Amino acid sequence: MAELDRTICVMGLGYIGLPTASLLATKGYKVHGVDVYPDVVETINRGDLHIYEPDLDVLVKSAVGSNRLTASLEPVAADIYIIAVPTPFHDGHRPDLSYVEAAVRAFAPHVKPGALVILESTSPVGATEKVAAWLAEERPDLAVHEEAAARGARVHIAHCPERVLPGKVLHELVANDRIVGGIDDASTTAAAEFYHSFVAGKVLTTTSRTAELAKLVENAYRDVNIAFANELSLIGDRLGVNVWELIELANHHPRVNILQPGPGVGGHCIAVDPWFIIDSAPDEAKIIRTARQVNDGKPDWVINKVRDKAERFKAPRIACLGLSFKANIDDLRESPALAITRKLAQSGVGEVLAVEPYVHERPGALDGLDNLVFCPLDEALARADIVLLLVDHDAFKRLDRQILSEKIVIDTRGLWR
Questions:
Q1: pLDDT of 105-149, one tens digit each?
Q2: From residue 36, how far is each of 39, 105, 110 by CA, in Å?
């Protein structure tokens, strides 16, 4: 069978699954996408989007229009299964693989001999082996390991973590190097051959455990370095030093590259993945744990700064600019900006004016807060006594600074320094 004659079933049509499914469909594969939400399935089958990602609307419309992408609530028989479902953590920061397990058990009855199963969801070490175990429980007639191939029809299982940046997903799905690790050599080879069919970057092969840890390490590295910058912002504030100038000067050293501080760390990766390492090796992951504590503590520091300034007013109005976890996207997952805005409203410190140019309806996380108004930027700036910049959206960069001249400004991103 030619590579592009193979059919693909993508489990999960969110920020990774939908771009992946659409891209593969436009590359010539026949793709069946699965999601648990009926409205998501209906939206995609119309050729529309339920998420925002630059240029994804054109890709989805093309993929659906060509009949190479369909969406459904149920999986079907396919040659390749890609798991792209959430992997959050429970209270206490324990990894939750229930969505992955549910996906495996859902498609297991449809798996044919010779199929390839790929876990793309960022996962704790050993998760791909659990995928193999769950599939073996559901389908004892299939061999999921090389040494068992003689006893049954072979299925290959591998991990290939997504490594894309929101806002650049479509480009990076193709351009970025990929790490592929199977539960055995044959699985690694089968998965690598598949990714070679559409990835322009290098396809680097290893074991499933190493591939799992590599993705976690990439994000933990970022988290540790952001924590250093955030800690510098606390030190600078205590000592009366402008942290933005401090970092700019320090970065003139040829071997120093300090990142930029912010109100915390958010997103589905950097704020979550380090906890998977800590859970697997709690006694060894000392620096990683401390970095998480520094970054998780930054939102409370920001809230206290606002409360201090609010004491100057009888009934302060606080404009919170930005709710997403990073600039120029609509993704609210694990967003420190959203958490800060919600906690400020809950604290009763004053009226909160929430602004997010990439979200058009009041987020559900802000429901039930009578002293919070979700409003356009111009309205918030006209009414606010305190302007709290939480996300460095381009729309905020273009602001006329004169509008801010008579207001108290707390800039957590260094945008207006």
A1: 999 999 999 999 999 999 999 999 999 999 999 999 898 876 655
A2: 9, 14, 17
User: Which one is catalytic: 9, 30, 160, 215?
Assistant: 215
Residue 110 tokens read as: 């449809």
Residues 333 and 228 in one domain: yes
- Round to whole Å and give the CA distance between 55 and 59: 7
pLDDT tens for 20-34 read 999 999 999 999 999
Last residue of a domain, one of 201, 233, 265: 201
- The verdict on 9 and 67 lying in the same domain is yes
Tokens 């998420």 locate to 51
Catalytic annotation present for 269:
yes
* pLDDT single digits (tens) 158-201: 999 998 988 899 999 999 999 999 999 999 999 999 999 999 99
* Mean of per-residue pLDDT scores for the chain: 95
Q: Which domain holds residue 353?
A: 223-411
What's the pLDDT at 145?
75
Residues 30, 269, 309, 320: which is the catalytic one? Answer: 269
Q: For 28-45, what is the mean pLDDT?
A: 97
Residue 144 lies in a domain: yes
> 160 an active-site residue?
no
Task: Check pLDDT > 60 for residue 1.
Answer: no
Which of 49-53, 274-278, 347-351 bottoms out in mean pLDDT, i.e. has the lowest?
49-53
Q: State whether 138 and 248 are in the same domain.
A: no
Is residue 386 within 8 Å of residue 306, measured between CB atoms? yes
